[in-house]
Structures are given as structure tokens and as C-alpha cells.
Amino acid sequence: xxxxxxxxxxxxxxxxxxxxxxxxxxxxxxxxxxxxxxxxxxxxxxxxxxxxxxxxxxxxxxxxxxxxxxxxxxxxxxxxxxxxxxxxxxxxxxxxxxxxxxxxxxxxxxxxxxxxxxxxxxxxxxxxxxxxxxxxxxxxxxxxxxxxxxxxxxxxxxxxxxxxxxxxxxxxxxxxxxxxxxxxxxxxxxxxxxxxxxxxxxxxxxxxxxxxxxxxxxxxxxxxxxxxxxxxxxxxxxxxxxxxxxxxxxxxxxxxxxxxxxxxxxxxxxxxxxxxxxxxxxxxxxxxxxxxxxxxxxxxxxxxxxxxxxxxxxxxxxxxxxxxx
Length: 325
Hints:
The chain is of the alpha/beta class. The protein is about 35% helix and about 15% strand.
């Protein structure tokens, strides 16, 4: 009959196992976090199957942008036209003999930053709302999988708009979802003179604080997260004159609603006005110049807040307010 291991041997084996798991966890989080945070192949086919705007009845320019480090970004540019072949298109007056390009130069431009899953083609239905319903120019891009590279990619897109012969004088609104919201905040903190407003959905204060919720098993190792995206420290760098619309899903299972609430409080202090209420849809708080808003959607999860009732009405009202002085 084989002898049972001694208590000492069992303890040593247990310690070795725990140490091995801990080491594996540390390595996974520190060296593999880019793949966890930016899963470019999720959902399956995201790297090879990229929808294009014509799939949704939209004319566009397939725009390759080369970054300062020589990487080519694949982007979609949707420039406004005097008339759009869509029965739901908002009617906007234009001058006789005005060209499509001249008309586009009179409309706002939305620069879209999507969440970490999928590609920019998956967000075309959202771009279509901006393009058709609000008659905005839209620039969409897919960015790379690390914070340093993404900052370069975002800057490249903004610099393109700033040098475009027809779009350079249009008000630029950054629209960011999830980690795209962090990208938008970071870009605005470094380019405030080039940006008119921010629209942020279900984004976070910083990534290390999010790890325990998004990756519970790696929670104790969150200090190893070198992809910071510290939006809480970036918002105070954005001028109080810049309007911000924050849209939060109460049932968000990835980014706890407290993150958006805290960002709103920081934005409120930035504006020099104490926010009121909790941010419920029935209690729209105003800060600063009265254009900033924080809205919570009771049925909103991380990926479906944008289809909640009232979401796009709030966005449209915000966009309209930007044209008022």
C-alpha cells in the first residue's frame, strides 16, 4: 500500500502550486495584458471581416492614414453631401450652387473611437445615425493594441482633420465608447484647442481600478497593469469651456457605473460648479456653460446602452446645443 505524503510534503506542494499559479497570473497580466485589453480577434473574424459603409447604404472614402511611426491605419471618412439618398435624412438648407465639399465644411465632424472588441466596421450603424440623422461628417478608424500606439493613432486622425482643406474649420466632436472614451479624453487633454466637445459612453476612471471587476482572478495583481488610461487625471486638463456629454448604462457588467459617476464629479469640479442629483434621466444636471450633461440609462448594459430609449435623442440635443452660443 503506497504511503500517504507527509504533512510537510503536502504543504510544500501546495505552496509550490500557489506560487506557480501566482507567477503565471503575474506573467499573464504584465506581459499579456495587451491581448486581454485589446482583443483584436474578438469576435471571431474581426481581423479579416470588416464591414464597409456601402453595406449600410452610405457613400464613403476608404482612407489610409500613415502614422508618424510608419503604420498605416485603415479609416472610413464619411463627408456630408447637400442631399443624401435616405428618406430618414435630416433636412439642412444649403446655398444655391454650393458643392458637396463646401456643404461639408459647414457641418460638424465626429471622430469616433470604438471599444476594445471588434473593428471600426462594426460601428457603422452608429456612424450612420451621426451622418444621416444629424448630418455630421464622420471619421472612423481602427487603432492598434497598446496605449502608446493608440495615442499616436488618435493624434494622426485628429491631425488629418486639422489639415483637411474642407474639414479643418469644422467643430470636431470626439465620440468614445468604453476604452474609446479613455482615448477621447486623452486626446482632448492634449489638443483642447482643436476639439469642440466630448461624448463619452461607459468609460472608466483608469484601467487598474477596472481589473478586479473585469478580470476578478487577476484583481490582486492589478498593480501590474501598465496600460493605465488614467482618465480621472486627464479630465482636469480639459478646459472648463469644453462641453462633455456622459452616457452611462446602470447595468454595465464590465465598467461599474461608479466609474462614470466619478468622472462626472471630476468634470463638474473642472467646470467650477457642484453637480446636483445622481444623474438619472429625470434629473439632468447642468455644469459650467449649461451644455454638459450626465445621463444614466436604467436598462443599459456595457454593449447595449447605445440602443436604449432616449440615448440618441440626448446625443442629438447635445449636438444641437453646441451650435448655440
